[in-house]
Amino acid sequence: MHPADPLPQGDLDALVIGAGVVGCAIARRLALEGARVAILERGADILDGASKGNSAILHTGFDAPTGSLELACIRAGHAEYLEIRERLGLPLDRAGALVIAWTEAEAAALPALMAQARANGVGDIEPLDAADLRAAEPALSHRAVAGFRVPGESLIDPWSAPLAYLAQALAHGATLARGTEVTGGAFDGARWRIETPRGALRARRVVNAAGLHGDRVDRLLLGEAGFAIRPRKGQFVVFDKPAAALARHILLPVPNEITKGVVVCRTVWGNLLVGPTAEEQTDRDRADLVPATLAALAARGAEILPALGGHAVTASYAGLRPATERKDYVITTAAGGSYLSVGGIRSTGLSAALGIAAHVAGLCGAPGAWAAPAELRWPRVANLAEGAPRDWQAPGHGGIVCHCEQVTRREILGALDGPLGAQSLAGLKRRTRATMGRCQGFYCTAAIARLTEGRLAQPMVGADG
Amino acid sequence: MAEGAEIAIIGAGPAGLAAAEVLARAGRRVVVLEREAEAGGIPRHCAHSPYGLREFARPMLGPAYARALVARARAAGAEIRTATTVSAIRPGPEVEITSDAEGVGRIAPRLVLIATGARETSRAGRLIGGTKPGGVMNTGALQGLLHLNHRRPFARPVIVGSELVAFSALLSCLGAGMRPVAMIEAGTRPTARWPAALLPRALGVPVLLGTEIVAIEGGARVSGVVLRRGGDEWRLDADGVVLSGRFRPEAALIAPAHLVRDPATGGPEIDEFGRCSDPAFFAAGNVLRGIETAGACWAEGRGIAQAMLRALAGGLPAGPGGRIALGPGLGWVVPQRIAGGAAPALPVLQLRAAGALRGRLALGAGAREIAGRSLAALPERRLILPLPPAALADGAEVRLGPEG
Ligand SMILES: Cc1cc2nc3c(=O)[nH]c(=O)nc-3n(C[C@H](O)[C@H](O)[C@H](O)COP(=O)(O)OP(=O)(O)OC[C@H]3O[C@@H](n4cnc5c(N)ncnc54)[C@H](O)[C@@H]3O)c2cc1C
Ligand SMILES: Cc1cc2nc3c(=O)[nH]c(=O)nc-3n(C[C@H](O)[C@H](O)[C@H](O)COP(=O)(O)OP(=O)(O)OC[C@H]3O[C@@H](n4cnc5c(N)ncnc54)[C@H](O)[C@@H]3O)c2cc1C
Prior knowledge:
The complex is a heterodimer of chains A (465) and B (404).
Chain A: E1 11-17, H1 21-32, E2 37-40, E3 57-58, H2 69-88, E4 97-101, H3 104-119, E5 126-129, H4 130-136, E6 146-150, E7 154-155, H5 160-171, E8 175-177, E9 184-187, E10 192-196, E11 199-208, H6 214-222, E12 232-239, E13 250-253, E14 263-266, E15 272-275, E16 279-280, H7 291-304, E17 313-321, E18 330-334, E19 339-343, H8 349-363, E20 400-402, E21 407-408, H9 409-416, H10 425-432, H11 445-452
Parallel strand pairs in A: 1-2, 1-11, 2-8, 4-13, 11-19
Antiparallel strand pairs in A: 3-7, 4-6, 5-6, 9-10, 10-11, 12-15, 12-16, 12-17, 14-15, 18-19, 20-21
Helix pairs in contact in A: 1-5, 1-8, 2-8
Chain B: E1 7-10, H1 14-25, E2 30-33, H2 53-56, H3 62-75, E3 79-81, E4 84-90, E5 94-99, E6 103-107, E7 111-114, E8 118-120, E9 129-130, E10 136-138, H4 139-148, E11 157-160, H5 164-175, E12 182-184, H6 199-203, E13 207-208, E14 212-218, E15 222-229, E16 232-237, E17 240-243, E18 247-249, E19 281-283, H7 294-312, E20 322-323, E21 325-326, E22 330-334, E23 337-338, E24 348-353, E25 357-365, E26 368-377, E27 383-386, E28 397-401
Parallel strand pairs in B: 1-2, 1-7, 2-3, 7-19, 9-14, 10-17, 11-12, 11-17, 12-13, 21-28
Antiparallel strand pairs in B: 4-5, 5-6, 8-18, 14-15, 15-16, 20-23, 22-24, 24-27, 25-26, 25-28
Helix pairs in contact in B: 1-3, 1-7, 4-5
The structure holds flavin-adenine dinucleotide (2 copies).
Residues 17-23, 40-43, 48-51, 53-57, 59, 181-182, 209-213, 217, 234, 276, 319-322, 345-351 of chain A line the site of one flavin-adenine dinucleotide.
């Protein structure tokens, strides 16, 4: 068995609850400010909540509510991602988005959306008529009426980004404890004592970044919560690599009150995805796939890009948004500023995470709250995106193990190694993409079971029996 | 060595190895490029099946059969490079490879044979609902765990599908001490022919016909499946799901390349010599159309290797030949084009029907019937027609009509 992450000892400056993209970004920011940070995650591995399945778009905030905290965090988060990504080895596909009206009624809503985009500081949008749309996106259905382009909307790797944030936090002394659920705690006026089944920890500040369980953690620690999580499911279908050539841009519909609507876009790995749906549910952990919905998504994709009809679905997944009864993020403080709750980061958390982290650090009195290191370290994460060099192109890779996604033995062993090494098959997939391609494990299951044997806290089926 | 090869063969399964043997025996410098650490293709992990009757005149287990094919190709002088993945093919022909020692390398042979095989359709491709627990896999993955790793992933799985490979999964499970709780088939009868179809009953495993799998349940592992027959839905306890069959060509190299791909088969478009739209490329085996027996793929590899020898000597008719169109109800045809000329590598037209068939299956050009036969066939069963004797012009069509 892989040894469990050690439980952080001694007095902490800050304890972050939850290793989703938001918690990872907060841990990074606080560690870079010089705080002694620990991050606790109840799952076997990081990114197993809301952050496990999203559309992977780095939003500009063009359609966020004007004047909202959400908009401010998206703008700041987007800008910081662009600034740091090269040093951390993070990909960026500047695809740009087309917002497309399919009816005259939708077209009538475009001017207001464009005005909102400009008011939100996204000034580089361009209106497009039907002919412009066809020129910009040759495979698009001719039924598109009008639209506009948002050049700044981009595609990123939704897992390498938080992994890199956390890796940089660890490089600055932060500690990660997975398989460690916060079950209670109390504040004595100076310090928090946080309970977990593995033991207690002490910290001056606590940041609740528990995503889909945020209101529960508030109730556990404060006795009350300022918001109520209402999980909203989003299902997706993924088409194989040849389909990716059909979409040059991120294709967005005209959004409505509840959702940004069904998006068609490439991934940085070179696939094409269609989704998400927006379905309210009560379960916070379980996101069921529904065959009729998946078929409807595939069909919707083929309405938008008719040529998609000839392509096969190679993967499907569902994610849960930590939505609340409110429209905006709910970021509040309690217990004399020693407790920060970061709630309701529902559908833009990947884009906003670095901005949220800076906001949270500000609420903690940073900069200046701690002694920041003179020089920062920039650990690089493995690149899985197309367009940048991949591991299989360099000698010494030990052979390709996952053929569909061209994942090498060296990459898999690397992802299993170190304090941030994968602890579950799902975690290994997110770090390497192994088994996530068109064959979904037909060829590589046996090889991956061999490589992971005895190395995962949550062993892979077939590596344990 | 590979750098000086006249012929590069991609894939060391039965089709690629059979071709390698023929070509090497004829004195050609052949390199077989195989991405797995061991050559042999799918039979490497089929530890139960009757392989080798046609090739070695005796029934063999898959692994022994694979080793025998490898030994023959080597003895004939072919070089087999394992753990070497072909990452792209380009006009020239150029074959881009990646290996531990080199990273990326390139080979420029005179001819290339694509023999990359086929794989089963995944859970996602079947749009199955529910959660994503561990313990859902294809027969290929199951047999890899059992025979390469000696691990038993579950104890009481359901097996989805009833093609021959489903019975292979069933035997693998029973042989390893697992007890499948049911076999599930959406059609009203098993796809595989008698006698395989009688096997489960004889072994005490219920076969649920007309039944679909709607959802898979479970957290870390499968806990059950939700099934549907007609209007009824019910849950069955199980700790694993084997998704068998519905093979698709492993055509990942072809999709981004310059070669014409047939959307109906998912494989490359070829003529009766196994020649692709770029005549420097040939293809053989399961990559052409999904699953056939190993013996059939082996024979195909040999036949197409002969055509490649003729191509090297300038002895093949110029392509591309007319494209055969498909009438309603028909799924695919291989070869897709007929160039005409003596000694075709593929002796018949292979076809599949989308549904059950009854009537006269005929290849015609205008009102003229070139070849035809009466038949009554079940979905997914193999259909054949004689190859037309001469080159076809575009516009020939295989169609299904009334008897008469
Ligand atoms: C369908 C869909 C599409 C989306 N598309 C985009 C997009 O394109 N762009 C974008 O920017 N955003 C997108 N999002 C939003 C983004 O994914 C979320 O905003 C983000 O993942 C929220 O992250 P989080 O860290 O707040 O929550 P989570 O990822 O849920 O992290 C919380 C973590 O806390 C842990 N935890 C909970 N309770 C405890 C406890 N008691 N003790 C210890 N740990 C605990 C959980 O296990 C979890 O890992 C999308 C979301 C969905 C669902
Ligand atoms: C579970 C199961 C049971 C079976 N049982 C029987 C049986 O009992 N009797 C029988 O006759 N037949 C049986 N078959 C069918 C038979 O095994 C196959 O039809 C036969 O192996 C096909 O041969 P092939 O050469 O076309 O492809 P494969 O055997 O699939 O070989 C293709 C090879 O190409 C390699 N390859 C693919 N892409 C690349 C690339 N880019 N670079 C390098 N190498 C690559 C693959 O690694 C593989 O080794 C069974 C099949 C299955 C799945």
